[in-house]
Amino acid sequence: MALMQIHDPAASPRPVGIDLGTTHSLVAYVPLVGGATCVLDCDNEALVPSAVSYRADGGVIVGKEALKRLRDFPEDTIVSVKRFMGRGAGDAETKRLGSYRFAADAGPVVKFSVAGERTVTPVEVSAEILRELKHQAEDELGEVGGVVITVPAYFDDAQRQATKDAGRLAGLSVLRLLNEPTAAALAYGLDSKQNGTFAVYDLGGGTFDVTVLVLDDGVFQVRSTGGDSQLGGDDMDRALAEKVLQRMGVSDWRTASAQQVSIARTGARSIKHALTERDSVAADIELPDGSTVDFSITRAEFESLIQALVERTGLACRRALRDAGLRPDQLDGVILVGGATRVPLVRKYVEELFGRPPLTSIDPDQVVAIGAAIQADLLAGQNAREDVLLLDVLPLSLGVEAMGGVVEKILPRNTAVPAAAAQVFTTYADNQTGFTLHVVQGERELAADNRSLAHFILKGIPPMPAGLARLEVRFDVDVDGILKVSAREQTTGIEQRIDVKPSYGLSDSDIERMLLDAYDHAEADVSARALREQRTEADRVLGALQTALVSDAPLVLPEERPRIDAAMAALVAAMSGDDHRLIASRIEDLDHVSKPFAGRRMDRSIAQALAGRSVVDLERETATAKGIEPHLGPVKE
Amino acid sequence: MDPFLTLGLARRYDLDEAELERRYRDLQRTLHPDRHIQAAPAERRMKLQKAVEVNEAYRTLRDAQRRAEALLAALSGEAGVPVVDPSEKADPELLMEMMELRESLSEAKASRDAAEVAKLSKRVTTDRDEARGRLTRAFAALPEPPPAEALVPIRAMISRLKYYQRFLDEVAVFEDEALS
């Protein structure tokens, strides 16, 4: 199949969706004809193990081959790196039962010491996985365009930012971060063509999410989301691995060698898989010295080991339902996502919790990547499907630390994104000339119990009596769930704006430097890429404006038209040169002169949306546009 | 910003929730950032700002307490009276009652007595629902346009509801922490 593929050199780059998972990752796309499909490797497999192995000679191996090196090079082979994304070096959870050497110099970021005397951050390790997926996609599609990367819905700001950084570091143009349960719902919703309220139960390798959403004629509206970004199939492996280690003669895992840990975890994983089909398993575990010990376990014994883990998911489910204002029996279906939902106990638990058998018709390993590919296609593909829209929410409340260490919530969890909110604070001491602002994310009352995102200081406030200064703090959350904070002192107008970059995150200059350092990026590549990006952007702006000038001609003022035409011509001229800065500034100029026209177009589309269209029109449109059968609402008796 | 105006809905307290949802989705179909990722930067910024405003209006109108406050603010503007009357004081009887309730809540929280918290929560929920019923009727009975003096009792009702709501928010945080 791959050999027969003919690349059309003029074909535009294809948008793709990437599921960057804890245990494995996938890349998928929507072909010109037919439904979304996963890219397969030379063995016809879609799953790429999320394993990266660093060799002493400086080489980097990703995927299946990396996993093979886990046994012999446990310290140089990083698996489950997703659990370290956006985490500080001090997080105890990150270090439990792993086989890694953590760099001592540390600083606030977790770093692994690997072969070749290198230290790598989780963002760099993830970028290697993304680069591998990009190469696989390029083998099948030619050029890869914009990318949608999925993240657990319950990822906080730091974890989202780290994922986006990894995408940039891998040289990808990240269109969007998409929440995994929402991606799964998109894949299911468009497949089943059914309206209603659904819960998505997503238990992956290292993260758990539950999302309640309403699907109504192509609009997927998330009502609530909850979860645990440190709970997954990995934890089942660890619970079982501790038993295997005991059988290997290691009573306390903290005293085990890196190799013993990796043997126990690999063994535990295959035993867990075998117990999905069978009631008991007897395995031979091969020790480092070549001898073997036998280990046997029944499914019931395994289930009692993981019972508490599985029950932890119930809390998040009950809370998500409560936040959505729903009882389990008001749902129309429950969708299962994630490899760990293959465990029979999990299925049984979900069925009891929601009082109905869950939907499993799409492969739980592939459904997220498929949803991501559909979203990428919606955003940047050739097949415009104007009627499908995802409305998502902020998973965890955002706030600032107020006096006494308590959190003043500024945006509560489950607020629809994009979102903004502002709050006014005042000074508590006379002549106070600065404010320290501590931004936190989470649901706990005390700031210290929540995730700390950033500290920043607003200086230069003129001395005033206590309580007189008025500091307005504004939070802006974008559609990726990423926060920007700005603060303004209202009596003087002193303003500061920061992107929340957690202390263990990367700055733009860090990324730039890493890009330059990366083996396949010379300086020339970076500026060539900037030029290509600006040309693409210019193409897009010109195309969109030309279409609008034709379709909305009556909205252009006669005196405006010559200015717009001149700015367009100037941009076209700049595009033929190779100065990406000039193109950028011409785009800005064009943007400026066409802004009033854009404003009129927006006002008209709002007026149209508010005027409402007839139900018949809506149904006809949605039916033809996406192949969904027109449906009738419930009939009132 | 009047959220009723943003969503193109009539100013009333007991609004039609299905209509609210429909308006919200119709607006986001045209304003959501995913809809204009290919558009020119100025258009993207403008629509983003509007999408944020629509989300904020939607959040306000879906929440009974915030909706009441927003409606009062809009009607006050119409009647030409200040939105917040700083001279106004809460009913001393209510203040007393709430102080006692909050004290009981603090004690129950400190001793992790979930049953007692639930009992207090139920009592305040009942009071709140009754007060909300009175408020609904009061809003519905307002003449058009509302004279300034007719808004005074409404303001007192909303302030009472705010005390109940704060109490119930505190209960929700406790219940959340008890869950995890």
Explain this structure to me?
The complex is a heterodimer of chains A (637) and B (180). Chain A is an alpha+beta fold and 637 residues long. Helix content of chain A is 37%, strand content 23%. Chain A folds into four domains: 2-231 and 315-390, ATPase, nucleotide binding domain (Nucleotidyltransferase, domain 5, 2-Layer Sandwich); 233-306, Actin, Chain A, domain 4 (Alpha-Beta Complex), CATH 3.90.640.10; 398-509, Substrate Binding Domain Of DNAk, Chain A, domain 1; 522-611, Substrate Binding Domain Of Dnak, Chain:A, Domain 2. In chain A, strands 1, 2, 3, 4, 10 and 11 form a six-stranded mixed sheet that branches. A five-stranded mixed sheet of chain A has the order 17-12-13-14-18, with helices on both faces. In chain A, strand 19 and strand 20 (407-411) form a beta hairpin. The relative contact order of chain A is 0.10. Mean pLDDT of chain A is 83; it is low at 1-5 and 614-637. Chain B is mainly alpha-helical. Chain B folds into two domains: 3-62, Helix Hairpins (Orthogonal Bundle); 92-179, Monooxygenase, CATH 1.20.1280. In chain B, helix 3 (41-62) crosses helix 4 (64-79) and helix 5 runs antiparallel to helix 6. The longest helix of chain B is centred in the last third of the chain and has 29 residues, at 151-179. At the A-B interface, helix 7, helix 9, strand 18, strand 21 and helix 11 of A face helix 2, helix 3 and helix 7 of B.
**Domain count of chain B:** 2
CATH homologous group name of the largest domain in chain B: HscB, C-terminal domain
Q: Which of globular, elongated, flat, extended, rod-shaped describes the shape of chain B?
A: globular
Give the overall average pLDDT of chain B: 87
Q: What's the count of strands of chain B?
A: 0
Estimate percent helicity of chain B.
Answer: over 70%
Fraction of residues in β-strands of chain B: under 5%
Shape of chain A: globular
CATH class of the largest domain in chain B: Mainly Alpha
Number of helices of chain B: 7
Rg over CA atoms of chain B: 20 Å
Q: What structural class is derived from the secondary structure elements of chain A? A: alpha+beta
Alpha-beta content class of chain B = mainly alpha
Q: Secondary-structure element order of chain B, as H and E?
A: HHHHHHH
Major sheet size, sense and barrel closure of chain B: none
Q: Tell me the name of the CATH homologous superfamily of the largest domain in chain A.
A: ATPase, nucleotide binding domain
| Low-confidence runs of chain B | none
CATH overall fold name of the largest domain in chain B? Monooxygenase
Work out the helix count of chain A.
14
The assembly state of the depicted protein chains is heterodimer
